Amino acid sequence: MDHKALFCCFLVVFLCSFPSSLQENVTITVKSVTTIAQTDADFVCVTLDWWPKDKCNYGMCPWGNTSVLNMDLSNPVLRNTVKAFGRLRVRIGGTLQDNVLYDVGKRLPICQDFRTVTNESEGLFGFSTGCLNMSRWDELNHFFSDTGVVLTFGLNALNGRKKSNNTLYVGNWDISNALALIQYTASKGYNVESWELGNELCGGGVGAKVDAWQYGKDMINLKFVVDQVYRTSSSKPKVLAPGGFYDKDWFNQMLQVSGPDVIDGVTHHIYNLGSGDDPDLLNKIQDPYYLDGTAQTFRDVANTVKEFGPWSAAWVGEAGGAYNSGGRNVSDTYVNSFWYLDQLGMTSTFDHKVYCRQALIGGNYALLNNITFAPNPDYYSLETTHNGSPYLRAYTHCSKDQEGVTILLINMSNSTGFDVSITDDLNMYPTQYSSTSTPSGGQREEYHLTPKDGNIQSKVMLLNGEPLMLTTSGDVPQMNPISSNSSAPLRIAPLSIAFARIKDFIAPTC
Ligand SMILES: *[C@@H]1O[C@H](CO)[C@@H](O)[C@H](O)[C@H]1NC(C)=O
Ligand SMILES: *[C@@H]1O[C@H](CO)[C@@H](O)[C@H](O)[C@H]1NC(C)=O
Ligand SMILES: *[C@@H]1O[C@H](CO)[C@@H](O)[C@H](O)[C@H]1NC(C)=O
Ligand SMILES: *[C@@H]1O[C@H](CO)[C@@H](O)[C@H](O)[C@H]1NC(C)=O
Ligand SMILES: *[C@@H]1O[C@H](CO)[C@@H](O)[C@H](O)[C@H]1NC(C)=O
Ligand SMILES: *[C@@H]1O[C@H](CO)[C@@H](O)[C@H](O)[C@H]1NC(C)=O
Ligand SMILES: *[C@@H]1O[C@H](CO)[C@@H](O)[C@H](O)[C@H]1NC(C)=O
Ligand SMILES: *[C@@H]1O[C@H](CO)[C@@H](O)[C@H](O)[C@H]1NC(C)=O
Ligand SMILES: *[C@@H]1O[C@H](CO)[C@@H](O)[C@H](O)[C@H]1NC(C)=O
Ligand SMILES: *[C@@H]1O[C@H](CO)[C@@H](O)[C@H](O)[C@H]1NC(C)=O
After folding, report:
1. Of 2, 53, 216, 260, which has the highest C-beta tally within 10 A?
2. Which residues line ligand 9 (CB under 6 A)?
3. pLDDT for 251-269, tens place per residue?
4. Given CA atoms 135, 126, 118, 61 in this order, what sign does their dihedral have?
5. What b/e string do you get for 356-390 counting C-beta neighbours within 10 Å, with b at 16 or more?
6. Rounded to the nearest whole angstrom, what is the distance from the C-alpha of residue 460 to the centroid of ligand 8?
């Protein structure tokens, strides 16, 4: 299987089930003439964060050497796992980004790492100001260019503002330090696909907040300088905002104040599983009714963009599931793929163009282990997608760069069986179900993901029964499907995930 980007367009899927005691027959009808959403070619995205090694939660310090500033960029496992995607979208950002200065242009008196501070009125979230020097920025860009990364960089949006009362910051954004970084980056020919302003400063804010009208004005400035700096380039980076939790009035106002053609991407964050130490985390991840709760946010953001910023696109700029570094033995194990793959499927049906997973490394919710950089189970879930009853979740998309469609099925049930038949509904009109046909005669490629020893908290994921592990040379293993007759029903084990590519499924909309 190749490792190129995935979901292109999503089709409408209907699930009909005929319940019986413990076995259900399910028919999935793919409305192959109706596209419900189209995602960006680089839909899958991961984040890199600034957290230093002394960032701790719940008595654990899971960041270690995994931050933008201290990650070992020469680690071969890191390089291989990023490269395996072909083009992986990466967003650099996170809580401390609004506390980072760039040592370029007018030189800073000191350029040093984040330090813990005890005096609340100094620093943010218990840390002093940090600093990115240009030799580290060069190293990062060489790594990104070597590994084919498509980069989004989150700029410090608090620079120059004054703390008013409580957590409100007032005054215009001081763009000079950001501008110096953008100019340096452009002059070096480094490819930044988008510049994002701020992290979680919108609405009520997390540790700090800025008013929406002020943000809208600042975005006009950011767009202006990006246009200026890149005026002779063939491609201009996008500008994104606000990189925080959705708040209807705040988002609407920011878009109204900034006006047409300023903000290219409206980025919002998702932590719908609650805190990382929630004892109920494991159950929430397996509960389809709970997981559905977040659909409303995706719908609302899509509506805000449609109504107030039709020139823009909705992105999930950061999503980690459980906040404060995720849940140990949950977010880093097989079961987390239920949440993650369901989110990828769900967001793309609500017209989001990009989904950035927190994090590639760092915390308990990362795709890669914090010490060895070896992939956690979720990494492979994602890899598999590269090819392109409430307890059974289904999403369908056109196979990427290939014939046919790919169906993602997640079986969250631990007790009810399903036999899935897939039919093609070529009917344009949703009320008529007569013209369905079952693809026949061809082959179906199946990728079944299950946990090792049936333990959903296992850190090892099996693909078609074989453990997915790095090869002895530290490479990502081959991911081979099993073939089956596409007229036979698809059987998905309890608590498992399957991708099926149906090669002879001709969907006109693809
Ligand atoms: C499911 O389908 C099979 C084969 O079509 C049939 O034999 C069986 O009775 C069905 N089961 C239920 C519960 O409808
Ligand atoms: C990795 O994370 C665990 C907790 O999740 C932590 O105990 C350990 O110190 C971290 N290792 C490094 C090298 O940071
Ligand atoms: C992090 O990297 C530094 C410098 O390379 C090294 O001295 C230190 O031992 C590393 N820390 C951990 C926890 O691996
Ligand atoms: C640049 O920053 C990195 C990371 O903070 C640090 O390890 C390195 O020593 C710095 N280099 C210079 C020349 O200051
Ligand atoms: C905390 O820092 C502020 C501003 O730097 C200073 O005015 C205040 O005295 C400090 N408080 C303590 C307890 O050190
Ligand atoms: C905070 O400041 C704003 C103006 O900057 C003011 O309108 C508001 O009443 C203040 N709130 C509190 C709690 O002091
Ligand atoms: C996670 O699992 C490991 C080994 O299975 C165990 O030693 C550790 O105590 C667990 N940690 C938490 C926070 O549950
Ligand atoms: C099966 O799932 C239900 C909730 O969906 C749970 O109450 C039950 O304990 C689970 N059974 C097993 C054997 O895990
Ligand atoms: C889902 O899991 C149940 C057992 O928990 C199993 O009986 C059923 O066949 C699975 N679903 C599908 C679609 O195969
Ligand atoms: C698939 O199954 C159908 C119906 O059982 C059969 O007619 C067809 O020959 C099979 N195709 C292949 C490639 O085995």
Report:
1. 216
2. 392, 411, 413-418, 420, 491-492, 494
3. 999 999 999 999 999 999 9
4. negative
5. bbbbbbbbbbbbbbbeebebbbbbbbbbbbbbbbe
6. 22
Structure token pair of residue 264: 């290219």
Give span(s): CATH 3.20.20.80, the chain: 44-367
| Alpha helix stretches (DSSP H) within 148-247 | 176-187, 212-229
Tell me how crowded residue 160 is: count the other CB atoms within 10 A of its CB. 15
- What six digits make up the tokens of 276? 């990382």
Is 318 a known active-site residue?
yes
Distance 65 CA to ligand 3 centre (A): 6
Considering 196, 200, 445, 446, which one is annotated as catalytic? 200
The CA radius of gyration of the chain, in Å to the nearest whole number, is 23
What would the two tokens of residue 494 be? 């309890």
Q: Quick check: CB of 61 below 6 Å from ligand 3?
A: no
Supply the CATH classification number for the domain 44-367: 3.20.20.80
Residue 96 has pLDDT above 90, yes or no: yes
Find out whether the beta carbon of 119 lies less than 6 Å from any atom of ligand 5: yes
User: Can you identify the CATH homologous superfamily of domain 9-38+385-502?
Assistant: Golgi alpha-mannosidase II (2.60.40.1180)
SS3 content of the chain, % helix, strand, coil (to 5): 25, 30, 45
HSE-up (13 A, CA, CB side) for residue 261: 4
The CA-based angle 95-97-101, given to 5 degrees, is: 150
Ligand 5 site, residue 122, Cβ cutoff 6 A? yes
CATH 2.60.40.1180 segments of the chain:
9-38+385-502
Atom of ligand 9 nearest to the CA of 420: 13
Q: Is 200 a catalytic residue?
A: yes
Query: Whose CA is closest to 236, among 194, 276, 280?
Result: 194
pLDDT digits (tens, 9 = 90+) for 416-453: 555 666 655 443 333 222 233 444 457 888 889 899 99
